[in-house]
Amino acid sequence: MSRFVVSGVWFSSLLLIGCTSHHERDAPRAAVAAPDPARELDPSLISPSLPTEPEVPEAWTDLGRTTSLKYKPLTGAIGDVTGDGQADVVVIAYLVGNATGLVVLTGAGDGSFSEGTPLELEGEFGGSGVGLADFDSDGDLDALILDAGGKPAYRVANNLGSGRFELGSAHVIPGRDGGELRHAAIADLDADGDLDAVVPLWDSLRILEGDGNRNFTAGRRLSSARDPFDVALADLDADGDLDLVTATGAGFPVSADNYDTAGASLWLYRGDGGGFAKPEGISVAAISRVEIADLDGDGELEVVATGSAGITIVEDPLGVRETQLLSVASDGPLLIADLTGTLAPDLATCSYIQGQVHILSGYPNSSKSSLGAGDYVTAMFAADVARNEGRHDLVLLNAGPPPQPYAAGSPSIEVRFTDDL
């Protein structure tokens, strides 16, 4: 079975967290970075069947621990890269000037992290996204690094053991310049035992076919709308094949290089035994992140997308497609995990402007709680990083200073303990 890591994503009723859960059909997710501002809300998309302002119960207990960082994180991924049983965070960070580097934040097991020496991404390869998986089946998590600074490109950093990485060569990904290239969906798509990846480009997706030795071959191009920000894989129709979803920042194409700019769109690709069928589009309000989860425990998966317009939830995405919108500030990262200890998925999102993280529990009659969060959260994870009890802490990767009473300098990695939820 291939080894991979995700950051708290629910597929069906299985929670994959850190590098402790494995599943043959469910896909890992790559780390999240700050999306571009999304477009204005289309009022016609607001469904009356869900409250637009969820009720607010007792606030979160703002207990936690913050570790100051020297280098400002652009994005990151969580997993045990040192092999000591504790969750670590691997970050693409800004160094000096325009340089970027790969930095390992080693978890101490008490909610604190130690910042390692950066591995600079030299030359024109800057780094815009990162995902963790065991690409060579040696038992260590390697890092797939994406770059959108010039020609879209990738490179794999080999984990030599204990979290020491060695950079591989950079490889251009066929496709147009100008895409975000911040996220990847990682899974064995062709059932050959090797991990593959799907990455978003400017106006399309590209499949990277892995060879099991940290190398990829550029595979099929999948058409989409402009600005595909995020990608997710799961078996939406329970037919045994992984299906693919992407969240794009534009509407449907009107003509060549001309897209409807009044809204955004979700594109769904049915898996057909190793490949994907022609995509089906859904017009939605402004979105930039997408996850797939069984929110209500009925055994069927929902597609969840967030952006400046709120949280869009699509039930039965490959069937009837009932779309609902919750008006919750959600222009930041998206996380789905059991944060309240109810053995059911909670939905966490945040707002850069408000400096808050919002937790929605109990879908479809969602209640909302909020807590102050650090300035400009670039990634959120759920993992047991402090108590070793199997309970999930909320981990925030901050590019700016955390709020009081956390007086640590900017930037930081912030852990919130969720004992009283």
UniProtKB/TrEMBL annotation:
A Pfam family it matches: FG-GAP_3
InterPro entries: FG-GAP (IPR013517), Integrin_alpha_N (IPR028994)
UniProt-annotated stretches for the region Disordered: 28-57
Keywords tagged on the record: Signal
Protein name in the entry: FG-GAP repeat protein
